Write a sequence for this structure.
């Protein structure tokens, strides 16, 4: 069921319009983020036919003004925040590995990337989002600068770190060694990413000032910290404090203790543990018993799982539609992203259109070529319903957002998520299974319940158990019917 814009009163009621929400972690907890790759989302001219080869590593023409003009498209899925690509000036060369359309090859921290528009265009986008009550998260790159070729680097052409002395000596990164990960160069001889020496006090001061000026100048509400694992952990607290906003780092690890440790230095990190093992379980390479164990491990290990980033797709990972073409599986990934209880939801642009692509750049297609359809044959309407439900529960039940989730596997093919008064069931069997009978327990006796995703109604028995049908492998999200009044879901 497509629920259009029902969250608007919730969003606009959060805060009056102002230059910046300067939002902290507590204020971000309730948000749902739509990740935009600026160059590939929308063009200023509004074209839906402008060429952009799926394998392209060149600029395709997406812009900040294009995003601003398509905010309706995002908000009508009831997302309450956007995350945009790095905004700073990039190396201009069309290198052996293409152009810096992604934003991760910086040259000058103090200039904007003119391929995306002007500084005024960027401010206009942020102001337009704020006028809708939406937050804007900016992607920040401070681990490295870039160059075309690793010899004869023009250090003086970089800003503000314009001397070789501000960088670690060249050594190519060994990801099996944390010291190497923090002090050696990513990239290669074609496009080396010269590693910034964040052990240098002068460098630290420059970077902290940069963070402060960036967020205040443009009014950003949150920061995504690129390559967080590639900088010493104790660099981050002062940087995050200087930014003055909620910060979520990229720390790509496969185990809870290593990933969760970063919450001692920043508000949250991308939940790669969930993403990795959920992908395995949903695709059938693993099982739901394993996934439930991993999810419970995150809850018991992390300082606050509700501040992690819950995602199943991004610009560095395969699209779910490349892993499975079964709509039930894709809806399972969507429901887990929004309702996992293991972080702030993040949806990568195009997931709602079931975009494909195994690796970069194939997973970074131009969204305008889809024509931005909003029908029910893709996942656009499904995300609108999921977000409407989460937004409603977040406002109805003040304890929901901080309630610790619990995970169980009643079957090896089914996992349940219990968070507050919500219970989610997901399966990895997809549409091949006509019906699976499940028991939803832990309710008060004789409680009327509704699956907000199918609108099936059931009532718990005297022991607080309710019989639930999972049809064609589709997720089930149970919630007390009396608590849904005014949500717009299932005509309530």
């Amino acid at each position: 069921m497509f629920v259009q814009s029902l969250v608007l009163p919730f969003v606009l009621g959060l805060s009056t319009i102002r230059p910046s929400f300067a939002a902290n972690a507590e204020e971000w907890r309730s948000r749902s983020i739509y990740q935009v790759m600026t160059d590939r989302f929308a063009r200023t001219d509004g074209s839906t036919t402008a060429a952009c080869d799926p394998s392209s590593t060149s600029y395709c023409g997406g812009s900040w003004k294009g995003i601003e003009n398509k905010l309706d498209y995002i908000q009508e899925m009831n997302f309450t925040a956007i995350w945009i690509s790095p905004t700073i000036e990039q190396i201009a060369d069309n290198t052996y590995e293409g152009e810096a359309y992604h934003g991760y090859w910086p040259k000058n921290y103090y200039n904007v990337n003119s391929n995306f528009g002007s500084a005024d265009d960027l401010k206009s986008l942020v102001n337009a989002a704020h006028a809708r009550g939406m937050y804007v998260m900016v992607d920040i790159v401070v681990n490295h600068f870039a160059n075309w070729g690793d010899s004869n680097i023009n250090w003086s052409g970089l800003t503000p770190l314009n001397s070789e002395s501000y960088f670690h000596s060249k050594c190519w990164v060994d990801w099996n060694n944390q010291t190497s990960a923090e002090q050696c160069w990513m990239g290669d001889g074609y496009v080396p990413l010269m590693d910034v020496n964040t052990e240098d006090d002068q460098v630290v001061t420059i970077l902290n000032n940069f963070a402060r000026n960036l967020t205040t100048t443009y009014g950003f509400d949150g920061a995504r910290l690129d390559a967080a694992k590639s900088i010493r952990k104790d660099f981050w607290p002062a940087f995050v404090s200087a930014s003055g906003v909620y910060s979520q780092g990229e720390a790509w690890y496969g185990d809870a203790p290593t990933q969760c440790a970063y919450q001692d230095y920043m508000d949250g990190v991308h939940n790669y543990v969930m993403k990795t093992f959920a992908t395995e379980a949903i695709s059938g390479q693993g099982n739901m018993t394993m996934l439930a164990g991993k999810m419970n491990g995150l809850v018991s290990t992390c300082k606050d799982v509700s501040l992690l980033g819950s995602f199943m797709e991004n610009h560095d990972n395969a699209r779910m539609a490349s892993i499975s073409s079964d709509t039930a599986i894709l809806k399972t990934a969507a429901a887990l992203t929004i309702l996992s209880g293991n972080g702030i939801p993040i949806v990568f642009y195009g997931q709602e259109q079931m975009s494909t692509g195994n690796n970069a750049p194939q997973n970074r297609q131009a969204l305008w070529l889809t024509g931005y359809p909003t029908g029910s044959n893709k996942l656009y309407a499904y995300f609108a319903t999921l977000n409407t439900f989460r937004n409603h529960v977040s406002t109805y039940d003040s304890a929901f957002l901080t309630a610790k989730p619990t995970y169980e596997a009643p079957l090896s093919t089914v996992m349940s998520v219990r968070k507050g008064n919500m219970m989610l069931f997901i399966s990895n069997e997809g549409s091949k299974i006509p019906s699976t009978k499940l028991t939803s327990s832990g309710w008060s006796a004789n409680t009327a319940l509704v699956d907000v995703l199918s609108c099936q109604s059931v009532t718990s028995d005297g022991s607080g158990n309710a019989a639930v049908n999972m049809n064609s492998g589709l997720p089930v999200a149970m919630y007390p019917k009396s608590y849904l009044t005014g949500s717009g879901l299932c005509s309530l």
Summary: DSSP finds 15 helices and 21 strands in the chain. The mean pLDDT is 94. The first helix runs from residue 8 to 14.
